[in-house]
Amino acid sequence: MSLYKSLAKQFIDDIQAGQLVQGSRLPSLRQLSKQHSVSLSTAVSCYQELESMGWITARPQAGYYVSQKSSPHSTPNWVAFKSRVSTPSSNSPVYSQFSGPLGVSNSDITDDTALELERSFRRVMKRMGKRLTRYPEFQGELLLRDALSHHFSKQGVHFPSQDLVITSGCLSAIKAALESCSHEGDAIAISSPCFNGIIELLGQMSRKIVEIPSLEDGIDLDQLETHFQQGNVRAGIFCTSHMNPQGITMSTQQKQRLAIMANQYRIPVIEDDVYVELSYSDHYPLPAKYYDTDGYILWCGSISKSLSPSYRLGWCLPGRYLDKYRSRFGSGCYGVAIPLQLTIADLIESGHYAKHLKKKRYDLLAYRIDYLNYLSKHLSAEALISDSQGGLVLWLQIPGLDGEKLARDAIQQQLDIRVGQTFTTLDFYKDCVRINIGHPLQGQAKTDLQLLIDLIEQNLS
User: Fold this and answer.
1) Which of 449, 423, 303, 285 is nearest to 367 (CA)?
2) pTM of the predicted protein model
3) Rounded to whole angstroms, how far apart are CA atoms 96 and 84?
């Protein structure tokens, strides 16, 4: 083992043993070099290795900090079951009329980023010219597609801009992808638990569902492959990085195998990657699309979580389904507003989007630390909490919790939360709750979290 890897392993062992706690500052590069009698380049390689694995994070002009969870709570126990076909309801569920920081998965936008968006919009409006007299292109403005292609190429994901389609958000991209590769009555494989918006969409589109059990490093790919082999599903939809609601990320090996299976069995897999840019470190988790050789992965994303949901702007890289996707998408959509597309293109090309993401990752890590520390102090020690390394949510499992009664009590208390049974068509996750951690733990967020903890304690059997 090389010297820098050996040194990195010592840090990992100390973190896992609790000797280095989450949020603690690490020695500077020069201090590390002196303490361990290694060269400065070895110290740099050590920290780069730890950062790429998600164990530490670099804060601008502040040094390196431990980012791995050091909470006394264990991670959730995922339900083992044999997956089967189920039918989601075609009726939209009735949600709480109250809007609170723990409910919808979202985050704040800083004043600086809002100002840069405004500046980008003003620059765009000055340059619109004859674009003001025409409708948007179905596939999206070339300037934005070029900007996204260049942006993601810096993260190791390369694609030609002519293969990308701009959409009205991620769900719009997924809907068009489903229309491109499946029909009414087809069974679609999803993770269990799964983002409730996907379940609702499948119900509205008259698709059936095959829920695939979650595992610590992703989903049960053995069961999924059995369904692929037997022809039980027409397609799959999976969030692969910082999953909602599980709060976990598929391992590199899982993503590689998912892509290989999609190509081997010629079954399309729609990859919902809306959280991919929200890692708590600068390490970018490559999507399953990266390993796609024959175009059977349809990669969908959006700025709704990384920047602003109000823009309703997303995209899809449909692979071999590009022609079908364009025809399906064009028939049901008249394009995304040109000024919005050009504003985001300007923000990306100016470099402010990348700066915004770096700041947001730092903020989200700080929020995660605060939420985990608060939960550790006030929630029962038996509670299980997902070990998220990015994204906006935590998945809580509390043995003995009556989730259905918790949901009713939350409505009475005007508390906006998402209970576990929201994320399945099966009889699971009644002792689970998903919370959003995209806001600072202060004000209403802190009040609501304490109220949730109190209600959980009242609903334990």
Assistant:
1) 449
2) 0.85
3) 30
- How many Cα atoms occupy the beta-carbon half-sphere of 138 within 13 Å? 13
Q: Give the three-class secondary structure for 136.
A: coil
Long-range pairs of 92-100 with CB within 8 A, sequence gap ≥ 24? 92/200, 92/204, 93/196, 93/200, 93/422, 96/410, 96/411, 96/414, 96/415, 96/416, 96/417, 98/411, 98/414, 98/415, 98/416, 99/416, 100/414, 100/415, 100/416, 100/417, 100/444, 100/448
Rounded to an integer, what distance in angstroms lies between the CA atom of residue 142 and that of residue 215?
Answer: 40
pLDDT tens-place values along the chain, 461 residues long: 689 888 988 898 888 677 887 778 899 999 999 999 999 999 998 998 787 667 888 877 778 888 755 455 788 999 999 999 988 875 545 455 678 999 999 999 999 999 999 999 999 999 998 889 988 988 999 999 999 999 999 999 999 999 999 999 999 999 999 999 999 999 999 999 999 999 999 999 999 999 999 998 899 999 999 999 999 999 999 999 999 999 889 999 999 999 999 999 999 999 999 999 999 876 678 999 999 999 999 999 999 999 999 999 999 999 999 998 887 755 445 689 999 999 999 999 999 999 999 899 888 988 988 898 899 889 988 999 998 889 999 999 999 999 999 999 999 999 999 999 999 999 999 999 999 999 999 999 999 999 999 999 999 97
Q: How far is CA 224 from CA 101, 234, 250, 291, in A?
A: 35, 12, 14, 18
List Cβ neighbours of 12 (8 Å cut-off, separation of 6 or more).
Answer: 50, 53, 55
- 323 in Cβ contact with 329 (< 8 Å): no
Whole-angstrom distance, CA of residue 197 vs CA of residue 211 = 15
438's tokens:
């995209």
Half-sphere exposure of 261 (CA within 13 A, CB side): 23
Closest CA to 302 of 166, 439, 177: 166
